[in-house]
Amino acid sequence: DLHGVVGGGPGDSRGQQSAAMLVVRAGAGPANTDRYLELRVDDHKQPIAELRRVLSLHQGYAALRRANDAWYREKNAPEAVREARRAVALMPEEDVAHSTLGTALYRAGDREAAKQAFRKALQLNPKIRPIIASLPERNPDIDPKFVQEVLEEKP
To answer: What beta strand segments (E) does 31-121 contain?
Structure first.
């Protein structure tokens, strides 16, 4: 868990302005480099807190990729739900995490929980409505009637 590693000292005479994290692992990075993860925050009033937020986003989007891989590569709905829930826990204010969770829950057969997840995505960002509306066009396993019910319900 990288969140426990992020700390902070007093900074220099100006206080804390920037923070960085570099995680290396042999051959783990792109083009067989050792740079597994490199994050920076510069010129910020609270760089440590911002680095934590950026790290959460990084880990959350990685969880979303794993959720999509679990479904599209393996048709493993329970694993997709687990990873999507992890993404929501890491980035609860990101509509894409909730909509991905909604899709995973739908595929796992939990329609009511799926509706709640889609409603939360719409609450966070009403502009995601056309994306949710187009789900059945891009995913034949999703019932257009279900999506219509989600879109017709008032939050």
So the answer is: 35-41
